[in-house]
Write a structure and sequence with these properties.
7 strands, 7 helices, 38% helix, alpha/beta, binds glycinamide ribonucleotide, binds ligand NHR
């Protein structure tokens, strides 16, 4: 069985979309894959309770308990590796990962980023797209490399930016597309890892 470990920091709606797809499409039988664990760097992440109720193992590795990125990443890696993952999935995970961490999972760690990369890597993507006058925005699933939001692109979806959009209304429109493309991208990738 190929184990998928999902990292979250907050709501976990992308995580939930992947778990639902795995259940509804019977990934265990069809892809020999399952979501083995959901790990958060924030103890209060809403997605943790949702995952627990879905019967998935959960864990917290609180970045505030560590002196820096290297010891945090070492602890996170140890927690992830308890599940011998075939694939590590960042789903609204908000801590930049060290080069050593990324190298450890090279080729089998992916992220969903709420912009049309290579436009707007980093944070506050929706406000930046509005401020630039973009007519379209969207979302990108990409390989995670040491350089932030720069890995190979695996999937994208586009949405319009409407004249009255705020960062929140645009984010909500993008998020509906995230929930469609991320489960699909993970299912495709799990066949190749
Ligand atoms: N790590 C590496 N090495 N490469 C990537 O491509 C990564 C990554 C870690 C996270 C997600 C990313 C996004 O999709 C991601 C991609 C957090 C920050 C950030 O600045 C930037 C990009 C992403 C996630 N985080 C602050 C930090 O100091 C903390 C912000 C907070 O806690 O709210 O780590 O956009
Ligand atoms: C999503 O829009 C995701 O693309 C974005 O945060 C949201 C998380 O929602 N990710 C980042 O901004 C990473 N820096 P979710 O917790 O409900 O999946």
């Amino acid at each position: 069985m190929k184990n998928i470990v999902i990292l979250i920091s907050g709501t976990g709606s992308n995580m939930a979309a992947i778990v639902r797809a795995a259940q509804q499409q019977d990934w265990a039988r069809r892809l020999d894959a399952r979501v083995a664990a959901v790990i958060s760097n924030r103890p209060d992440a809403k997605g943790l309770a949702w995952a627990r109720e879905a019967g998935i193992a959960t864990a917290v590795v609180d970045h505030k308990a560590y002196a820096g990125r290297e010891p945090f990443d070492a602890a996170l890696m140890a927690e992830i590796d308890r599940h011998t993952p075939a694939l590590v999935v960042l789903a609204g995970f908000m801590r930049i990962l060290t080069p050593g961490f990324v190298a450890h999972y090279a080729g089998r760690i992916v992220n969903i980023h709420p912009s049309l990369l290579p436009a707007f890597p980093g944070l506050h993507t929706h406000q930046r797209a509005i401020d630039m006058g973009c007519r379209v925005a969207g979302v990108t699933v990409h390989q995670v490399t040491a350089e932030l939001d720069h890995g190979a692109i695996l999937a994208q979806a586009v949405v319009p930016v409407l004249p009255d959009d705020t960062a929140d209304t645009l984010a909500a429109r993008v998020l509906t597309q995230e929930h469609l493309i991320y489960p699909r991208a993970v299912a495709e990738l799990i066949l190749r890892v």
